[in-house]
Design brief:
Number of strands: 4
Radius of gyration: 27 Å
Largest sheet: 4 strands, parallel
Shape: globular
Number of helices: 4
Order of helices and strands: HEHEHEEH
Length: about 150
């Protein structure tokens, strides 16, 4: 019989210890400042590369952040703004043009940091080289450069 009552007693004890500090009763001081939450406490729940025509569907599922553009950039951006969805996407060609985008959380970076992505300038320079090694131009410390 003891083992059946034990979890209930532990729960009651835990609540008795926690609840006085919640709601202003016993454990908090009214002089303490309220904590400032980053982005007002916003927590991103995102979808990777959704098309703009699906934004309403995702918003209805309580998704609040769209990540990655899969179509016309301005159309995608306008639809996210219209629905009040946050964005993580590539920057505009002039990054300063994004300064007024209040729903833009971050700029997306190229995937595959090891250089596999074909969008990466380093990946393009590696194409056709043995074992993916990029050939480096001869510099002042290179064994092929001549000392003067």
């Amino acid at each position: 019989m003891y083992h059946l009552c034990m979890p209930r007693k532990v729960l009651i004890l835990a609540l008795a210890l926690i609840l006085p500090g919640c709601g202003g009763g016993g454990g908090s001081s009214s002089d303490a400042p309220e904590p400032v939450l980053f982005l007002g406490g916003f927590f991103p729940i995102g979808v990777w590369v959704p098309p703009a025509y699906d934004f309403e569907k995702w918003k209805g599922r309580n998704v609040n952040t769209m990540v990655g553009v899969t179509q016309d950039f301005e159309e995608w951006n306008a639809e996210a703004n219209r629905l009040g969805l946050r964005m993580i996407r590539d920057s505009r060609p002039n990054p300063a043009d994004d300064a007024g985008e209040s729903l833009l959380l971050a700029w997306a970076q190229d995937d595959e940091p090891d250089g596999i992505s074909v969008r990466s300038p380093t990946a393009r320079s590696r194409r056709g080289t043995p074992r993916g090694r990029a050939s480096m131009p001869a510099g002042p410390c290179s064994s092929t450069s001549s000392a003067t």
